[in-house]
Amino acid sequence: MSQLTLLADALGRVRDIDVMLESLTAIEQNLPATRRDMIADLGARLRRRRRYHQRRLGLYLRDEEYTHLKGSLSELVQTTGAQIEHGQAV
Amino acid sequence: MAKPFKIRRVSPDDPAHRAAVRILRTRLREFYSHWPDPDEIPSPEQLHNQRISGKRLRYSAETLRDLFPDRLALMIDLLKRQQDLLGAIQDAVTQRSVIAVDLARRRLARARREEITALEELLATYDARHSELFTELEDIWRGMSRKRFRALLKDIVSRPVRPEGSEPQETTPEAASG
Question: Which pTM was predicted?
């Protein structure tokens, strides 16, 4: 379960920034041009941070831990599926 | 994160409709446990826990809806609406805190006054958004917290379709007792 938490956290950090950039874009549309320039700097800082978290996510997805997690989940699904097919309690 | 309530008195040998009632009633009780008084302002943790429990209830209901033909749609839609609001509130809180940190850094870096003002205004925009969403959430939760409404949901999840010839279920007396 802690492996799933790691994956969710890594995805969540990128996702949170995506949502925030989307929200900022919507806010920017209602701002005067002068204010928009100031917010654009914030957007640039956020995109920099997103690139950093995206790289970390990429590293995690290529890591052995993630390969192991995928293997465990796949095995769990197959074992449970076989138990259900044979009418065993899961 | 609050742990899920344990589903008691359920065994792998139970018929599906009986297990479904146990699961949904437990998830419903869990969902209502985090913010018991709608007139009180919940903490962010209470809201977070309610959101998670709402997901557990909704996904359970979606999985089991075939046992309750046409009966769970209202509950599922309502939960979805409430969760969308809770999600939007959570996003507003997260984003506000990112801007607050950024603003503090820009102040330390002696950024231009106009930039500081723009970030302060942005914070105010998020505060207004949060307040607007929270008012909507409170309205929904007030309605959902009414005793009669809660009893209706409990009644709905207590009446699955039983296969023909199965024994009568134990649901009705418990449903009535609350």
Answer: 0.80
